[in-house]
Amino acid sequence: MNTEKLTELIGDLTIFDLNIDFKNKSIIMNLGYLPFEKNAIKKITFNDVFWQDFSSFHKENIQGSIEYTNDFNIFLEHKKDYIEKNIKYLPIDFLETLKNSQHHYYYSKPTLGFEFLIITQTEIIISDL
After folding, report:
1. How far apart, in whole angstroms, are the C-alpha atoms of residue 16 and residue 60?
2. For the stretch 45-55, what's the b/e string if a residue is b when 16 or more beta carbons lie within 10 angstroms of its beta carbon?
C-alpha cells in the first residue's frame, strides 16, 4: 500500500469511530461522509500496533490523506519535528528499535481535525462496510 492508494481510498472521509484495543494491540477506524447520521463506508484496521499518537480532535475529523512509508529514514525525515519535540516522552530505545526492525509508518494529513501517527509491524487492512 502506498500514500497515493491510501489517499484514493480514504481521502476526504471523516473518522466516525476510533476503537483502540490495547490488549490485542489494534486500532479500528470507521470512516464515512458527513453528516454523521449516514453510515460509515470504510474500515481501517491497524494490527500489531507498536506506537500510536493522536491529537487535534474536532467535531469534523476529515482526513485529507494518510502518508505511508516502511522506510525508517523517510519516516525520520518527515517526522523529525515530532521526534525532537517528544523525545523525552519516548522509550529510551524507541529510535533504535525502529531502525533495527521492519515497521509501517502511517501519519495523517487532515483537512480538518484529528491527526494521528501510528506505527505497526504489519500493513493496515482497509475494507468496505
Report:
1. 9
2. ebbebbebeee
